Amino acid sequence: MDHGKGSPQGPVIYSAVHTDKDMTGIKEKTWEPWAEALRKMAMHPEQHIDTLLQVTQEAVVLHDKFPKGRKHLLVVSRQEGLDCVKDLNRSHIQLLKNLQALGEEWVQNLLNEDQSLVFRLGYHSEPSMRQLHLHVISQDFDSPSLKNKKHWNSFTTSFFRDSKATIEELETTGRVQLYGDEHSIQNLELRCHRCQSTQGNIARLKQHIRMCKAPFPSDLVHKGYLYTWK
DNA sequence: GTTCTAGAAC
DNA sequence: GTTCTAGAAC
Question: Which residue intervals define the domain Aprataxin C2HE/C2H2/C2HC zinc finger in the entry (predicted)?
């Protein structure tokens, strides 16, 4: 008795045809699907009412899905085609001032709830997700979602561009200088944002920052980059 | 961006 | 042995 033809069990061939080039052969930045989440919310806020804290003409406000501090909000610009600080010029100064003002309102709300918090407002030099977004993040960095060097250094090195400094830089030079990329900040040491001591790994760093009571760097205080309860 | 995990580092 | 890092994900 014959066995019928079994179904072919050959190896599955995937044709992973991905190209970074358009028909002119010029390389374009390609955004992965996961990087579109913020843009979708900014462009169609009515479809995300449940996750948005606030919707204005210019921005949407939401909780960061993976907060790196006790409080971590995003103020996302709704301007089409504006993805990162590299795209900014003088025409965006008023927008940035409005995003900052919105962020500051939320800082005030959050400080009213917990007067022990300290906040910093700023942008990542090279964001992972599309659509310009301002981070509003408490400086305890007390969060299970803070897990690796990239997380830490993206908020505590010059890779983090303070909102006020970004606006001032646009006003004086018309551009925003970037400091490092997502790859380079992984090779930086882990330094406490308060006492500046270096820690061997993320586990030790997190242990350390739970205890460290050193004052914040005075230049951050004097420049008004830190927001505290008054 | 996160999750998963192999293998390096301890 | 456990902890930690870093690269792939179809």
Answer: 156-211
